[in-house]
Design brief:
Radius of gyration: 24 Å
Largest sheet: none
Helix content: over 70%
Distance between the termini: 60 Å
Structural class: mainly alpha
Strand content: under 5%
Shape: elongated
Number of strands: 0
Amino acid sequence: MTEPSESALPITPPVAPPQGWVRRRIVQPVLGLLSQGLTAHQLALTVALGTSFGLVPMLGITTLLATFTAVRLRLNVAAILLIAHLWSPVQLLLIIPFMSQGAKLWGSHSPALTLEKLQYLFAHSWAEALRLLWHAMLGGLALWAGGCLVLAPLLYFVLRPVLARFIK
């Protein structure tokens, strides 16, 4: 019997090792953004604003805020949305504390925001329950906005020189 020559055997490319979730979902997209020619200023602004919008204590407006801002400031829309939505787990954890503290912002005008209080109010007075939720949301948004006035500039000014060195 004759053995097949090496050229007759099918050539199979080497199989790449499986990549982890963090590498596929975070590291590779961020490296892709760096290779798109964004400046350090644009990338730092994108990260700072994406982080701020990703922590808004109201479901459903993250995408609207991030997209509108990215278009208005001529930033990469996909990049700002990626960063904003990476913060979703933290956003979900912060909604209740923001709303609870937001309800306290209104002082004696609103009762404390608790699950039992909401259940009682929805069972007896829809208007009062909605008023309490409205005050809690407004107060939570006010607290978030105040926090973002500190967080976004801090992130921007810390990341800009770091990213400038990394991009070079």
